[in-house]
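## retry 2 of 3
previous attempt timed out at serialization; input unchanged, resubmitting
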Amino acid sequence: QVQLVESGGGLVQPGGSLRLSCAASGRIFSIYNMGWYRQAPGKQRELVAAKTSGGSTNYADSVKGRFTISRDNAKNTVYLQMDSLKPEDTAVYYCNAGVSTIWGQSRDYWGQGTQVTVSS
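## retry succeeded, writing output
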């Protein structure tokens, strides 16, 4: 009913930049939260950054000052600009959206994940 499609992952050298995108589509009435999580091998999935429909943002301490989350509410799309990347940022990045459907159901949806590898 709702799909999240991510793009923009890849291989980058330390200090480099990447921009992730995630577009939501389907029977959407409204999206209240959109954000990014990541999961490195052997570790739990963790919040990277999130942004509400009202504009409030939340960042993990480890990415503050380096990553920037933005949203285009008209396009149901969220972006993650990642600068000054470090090897410890290597992980699978997942898009997350809190969605209310046209049938009045509310739940979280997840993208399929996109690999980000920071290595020289």
